[in-house]
Amino acid sequence: MTEAEEAGRIDGRGLRFLLPRLALRGGVGSRLGSRAGESLEFQDYRDYAPGDDLRNLDWNILARTEREVVKVRREEVAPVIEVFRDRSASMETPSAKSACADWFFGLLSTAADGCRVVYREHPKTPRAVRVYITDTLFDEDPDSILVRLSHNSAALAIVRVLSREEADPPASGAFELVDSETGERREMTMDSDALSKYHAALEAHTARWTAAAKRLGAAFVDLAAEAPRPERISSLAAAALLQGR
After folding, report:
1. What percentage of the chain reaches a pLDDT higher than 90?
2. CA 98 from chain center: how many Å?
């Protein structure tokens, strides 16, 4: 466990991850779900059928009415939160982005009390809540990625992590740009015209992602990699992903 993840676990102690109702439909666990099962909470009666567990037969009703009915209880579930992490090289540059992703995973592991929070390479658990941590700094169509992640899920959230310089580059100066994915190098001078074009391109790129998220009913939230942790928590709360206990 990294220091950033440990810090996230500490920060998550006073917070609660907000689960959608559809997430409460998993396997045996610690939260009451919406299907019939074996928990202690009574839900309803139904007529006895051959093969039913006789321990669920209501003997009082049988004695009074001679009707064979069984008690139906609500199942207990442990909602699963599947976390998908963008493993591209750009997520490691600068290192604050990777640390922020670690922090968020640690926070989620604590704030999602009673849930199983796991890293995944591919979607696996039906009706899981899915969270994608990414900087979105690649050309792949966001629709194709988010449709795959949202399929058969309870909910999807996209947590975008950008560095300060990626969100708002310096206004002037000569720079050597290095593509972290390909290693390609390019020299350029940042002036007001270049800065305006950069902001316009980033805004259009962001609009494609937020539009794709909206079409799927997914949450989209930006986390500033170098921002103080309380500021990041505020961003997650504003996106209705977290609240105080």
Report:
1. 55
2. 16
Q: What are phi and psi of 120, to 5 degrees?
A: -135, 150
Q: Is the peptide bond before 142 cis (omega within 30 degrees of 0)?
A: no
| pLDDT confidence bin for 195, thresholds 50/70/90 | confident
What is d(CA 130, CA 154) in angstroms, rounded to the nearest whole number?
8
Torsion (CA) 195, 198, 203, 205 in degrees, nearest 10? -170
Q: Which two tokens stand for residue 155?
A: 């909910």
Cα separation, 165 vs 113, whole angstroms: 35
The whole-number average pLDDT for the span 41-52 is 66
Using only the alpha carbons of the chain, give its radius of gyration.
24
- Each residue's pLDDT tens digit, 87-121: 999 999 899 999 999 999 999 999 998 899 999 99
pTM: 0.75
pLDDT (average), residues 26-38: 44
- Per the CB < 8 A criterion, the answer to whether 13 and 109 are in contact is no
Q: Is the pLDDT of residue 36 over 70?
A: no
CB atoms under 10 Å from CB of 217, counted, come to 10
- In this structure, the strands spanning 116-119 and 15-17 are unpaired
